[in-house]
Amino acid sequence: MAAWFGGPKSRARILARLDSAQLGKVLLLLLCGGDKSTQARDIGRAQRKTKRFDTSAFLDDDEVVAEYLTAALEDPNPDVFLTAIGQVAKARGMSAIAEGAGLGRESLYKALTLGAKPRYDTVLKVLQSLAIKVSLTAA
What we know:
Elements: H1 7-22, H2 39-49, H3 62-74, H4 78-92, H5 94-101, H6 105-111, H7 120-129
């Protein structure tokens, strides 16, 4: 895996912000140079090469996962946190996490879908299956 600027905490915070930015939208990052004369060609080339960003591919470290979920929980949009839990479950194996939480795989997907309002106990069971401990501190 390529080195990330700032280490695991920075990687986790960047991933959480990317997830937040792309909820329900298409997020296209063009990291190249060019000018007006080649703009249409450059955009067309980028669109042909574009694929959906998969956050779960970068959640390969427990420290990154913990910081990623913390950053997602800080977002005022609850869908960001549910999406983050889903990305961690995907990274660790959705079927195994569903089984560990006592849910069917489809039920887990449904609970973590945008706009879902899962019960507290469902979220807690999934976090326990992910081996994630939640702790609170004074602001």
